[in-house]
């Protein structure tokens, strides 16, 4: 069967996601050699490593047989498959959306590409006009600002092609219309013009320039094409910085300011510096620090990080955001995007906050490039920086602030997967919290270790799973999916139950893929908003029953995931016995969800029991001894007799609860989880008893 043509978006997504080292490394044993990898070439009888794989260039090459190319080319040559087959395989592997083209779509794509070329031309013409305006009499103030206030040289002004948007409502509009015959609608599509609000009785709204009386900074893509602008206000007007809106050629989350100029320097230095503002990048480049880029007014996205990692083999990033509250929050958001990669050692992430709250531009004016480079070399790892953020401005002598710091640090350190690294940070944190008191530091380290151990619970962790439970989970998930496919009138109820019980994330990969395909088909027909409303119970979702999901999915999987289709056939085409088992859908639904919840609850019980048993308990005798010693000391200081017996008992109970707080908490949580487990067992028994009773009635003909 001839596959339909793939949409360029799918091809680009695959190229961006498929890392050359990962792809080649699945078929060839690679050994690191400097910044590259070497291995035995699979395309000829190779006896010594003659193939080089470059992560920075995303390219492989064999010096013996001359084979070379990107990830897709490697798999095409190795597997003798077509381009489309390889792209589909990689898209399925990385769970990327697959878009195809039919005849009308191909024509629309040609028109779309032509449209994009027009937009690039409009933006290039606008950049040239802005540059010319900077050298005009109207731009004298802007030029003085750049030279004097910013301290930029002529070479820097020319290198970044800075310009000026004059204080006119339609200066750019008139120029592009009169000289280049470009319509205002095209300028609006490029983000350069804004439609006016029509007044009462007017039919034509008209347009005006988006950028007025601003220094203009062109934003370029990796190919060096102008895709948008950043405009800096010159009269204190708000916003201080105005960016182009998102257009067909400009997506803020996919681009980085200055990357087209910084890519080679990032490769050479093997690290990238990410700052907040355009002028920070410009100032750093002017000072010779040319491996700097800036995010475009948004938090650093995973796509931007992928682009940077492609440029530096060591995957070393330094975030240098402003030291104010907004800068700290931006750094925290950026860390959140790459936290898992950093925790797994796949990325080296550091955070630099300059002294006195300065941004890079200000710091360079006062100190110079040498001092800035020294601070870059000393920038702390992201985790060290986050620890300092937790402890900053907290008075650890106050009990409430001390407890807040401990709670935050436990959450932070609980994320560390490697015990050796965790031990290192536990020791450091304990020393900071103890204020240099060695004995107290040891006690704090032990306490923190126990709390972190409790924090590291993951509800679906395989560590707490026992043999045979994976099979039970697979049967319960299969039962839910079979119900959903073949009991269409109950689909809304099933969705609500899955959401309410928090079991909609299927554990087995082929079940996850099937559920994703189901949701995709339903969202295409009803819209994502409707599906989410059905999940929450805010929409009855009656239209879900109209979809012939088994047939639709069979057709889709045959084209996109034929290997998966055979594994899912028992769900799409149940046998007679399996169909008979669908007689009581709602009872089976509650039984299957209870079975999945029970597995999660069992694992949590095992975790809590382990955490509880590992606690070091303080006995009542030791509590009494400590209180008697305290009473004795207080009596010497101010003789007033011993406390009443009832008061002493309360104090003993209070001290026992305080010293054994973690153990008592784990104990309470464990028994609470056991009670919930009993409820789930009762629910499962009742549901399946009802199903069996109904089936028996059917057999008797009742």
- Note the overall shape: globular
Write down the overall mean pLDDT. Answer: 80
Quaternary organisation of the protein chains: single chain
Radius of gyration: 32 Å
* Termini Cα gap: 49 Å
Largest sheet, if any? 5 strands, antiparallel
What percentage of residues falls in helices of 4 or more residues?
A: 55-70%
- What's the tally of helices? 30
Number of strands: 17
Structural class of the secondary elements?
A: alpha+beta
Neighbour order of strands in the largest sheet: 2-3-4-5-6
List low-confidence stretches: 457-462
Strand content: 5-15%
What do these coordinates show?
This protein is α+β, with helices and mostly antiparallel strands. It is built from 30 helices and 17 strands. The strands form five sheets. Strands 2-3-4-5-6 form a five-stranded antiparallel beta sheet. A four-stranded antiparallel beta sheet has the order 8-11-12-13. Strands 15-14-16-17 form a four-stranded parallel beta sheet, sandwiched between helices. A hairpin with a 4-residue loop joins strand 4 (51-54) and strand 5 (59-62). Helix 16 runs antiparallel to helix 17. The model is unreliable at 457-462 (pLDDT under 50).
């Amino acid at each position: 069967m001839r596959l339909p043509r793939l949409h360029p978006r799918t091809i680009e997504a695959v190229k961006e996601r498929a890392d050359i080292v990962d792809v080649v490394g699945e078929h060839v044993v690679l050994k690191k050699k400097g910044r590259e990898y070497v291995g035995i070439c699979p395309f000829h009888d190779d006896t010594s490593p003659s193939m080089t794989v470059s992560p920075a260039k995303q390219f492989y090459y064999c010096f013996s047989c001359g084979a070379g190319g990107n990830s897709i080319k490697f798999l095409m040559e190795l597997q003798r498959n077509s381009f489309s087959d390889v792209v589909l395989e990689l898209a399925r592997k990385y769970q990327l959306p697959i878009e195809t083209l039919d005849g009308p779509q191909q024509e629309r794509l040609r028109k779309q590409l032509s449209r994009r070329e027009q937009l690039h031309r409009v933006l290039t013409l606008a950049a040239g006009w802005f540059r010319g305006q900077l050298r005009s009499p109207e731009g004298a103030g802007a030029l003085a600002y750049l030279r004097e206030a910013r301290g930029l040289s002529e070479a820097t002004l020319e290198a970044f092609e800075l310009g000026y948007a004059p204080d006119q409502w339609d200066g750019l509009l008139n120029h592009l219309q009169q000289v280049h015959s470009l319509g205002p609608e095209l300028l609006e599509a490029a983000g350069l013009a804004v439609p006016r609000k029509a007044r009462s009785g007017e039919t034509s709204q008209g347009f005006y320039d988006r950028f007025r009386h601003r220094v203009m900074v062109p934003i370029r893509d990796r190919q060096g094409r102008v895709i948008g602008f950043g405009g800096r206000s010159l009269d204190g007007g708000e916003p201080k910085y105005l960016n182009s809106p998102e257009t067909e050629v400009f997506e803020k989350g996919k681009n980085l300011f200055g990357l087209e100029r910084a890519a080679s320097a990032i490769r050479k230095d093997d690290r990238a510096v990410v700052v907040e503002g355009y002028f920070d990048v410009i100032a750093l480049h002017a000072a010779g620090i040319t491996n700097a880029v800036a995010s475009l007014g948004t938090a650093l996205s995973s796509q931007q990080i992928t682009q940077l990692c492609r440029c530096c083999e060591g995957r070393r990033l330094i975030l240098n955001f402003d030291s104010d509250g907004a800068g700290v929050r931006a750094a925290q958001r950026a860390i959140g995007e790459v936290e898992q990669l950093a925790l797994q050692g796949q990325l080296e992430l550091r955070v630099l906050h300059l002294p006195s709250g300065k941004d890079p531009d200000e710091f360079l004016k006062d100190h110079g490039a040498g001092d800035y480079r020294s601070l870059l070399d000393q920038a702390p790892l992201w985790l060290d920086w986050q620890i300092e953020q937790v402890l900053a401005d907290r008075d650890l002598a106050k009990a409430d602030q001390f407890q807040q710091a401990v709670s935050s640090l436990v959450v932070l350190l609980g994320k560390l997967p490697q015990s050796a690294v965790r031990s290192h940070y536990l020791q450091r944190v304990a020393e900071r919290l103890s204020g240099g008191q060695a004995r107290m530091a040891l006690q704090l380290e032990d306490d923190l270790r126990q709390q972190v151990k409790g924090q590291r619970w993951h509800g679906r962790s395989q560590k707490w799973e026992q043999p045979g439970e994976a099979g039970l989970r697979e049967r319960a998930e299969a039962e839910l999916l079979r119900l959903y496919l073949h009991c269409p009138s109950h689909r809304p109820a099933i969705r609500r139950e899955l959401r309410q019980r928090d079991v909609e994330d299927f554990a087995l990969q082929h079940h996850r893929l099937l559920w994703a395909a189901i949701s995709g088909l339903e969202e295409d027909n009803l819209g994502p908003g409707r599906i989410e409303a059905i999940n929450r119970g805010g929409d009855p979702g009656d239209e879900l029953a109209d979809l012939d999901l088994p047939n639709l999915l069979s057709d889709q999987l045959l084209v996109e995931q034929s290997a998966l289709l055979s594994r899912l056939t028992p769900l799409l085409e149940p046998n007679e016995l399996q169909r008979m088992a669908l007689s009581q859908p709602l009872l089976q639904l509650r039984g299957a969800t209870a079975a999945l919840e029970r597995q999660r609850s069992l694992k949590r019980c095992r975790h809590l029991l382990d955490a509880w048993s590992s606690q070091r308990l303080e006995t009542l005798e030791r509590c009494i001894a400590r209180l008697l010693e305290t009473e004795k000391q207080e009596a010497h200081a101010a003789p007033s007799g011993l406390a009443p017996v009832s008061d002493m008992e309360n104090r003993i109970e209070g001290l026992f609860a305080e010293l054994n707080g973690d153990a008592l908490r784990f104990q309470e949580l464990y028994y609470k989880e056991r009670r919930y487990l009993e409820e789930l067992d009762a629910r499962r028994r009742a549901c399946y008893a009802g199903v069996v009773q109904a089936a028996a009635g059917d057999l008797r003909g009742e």
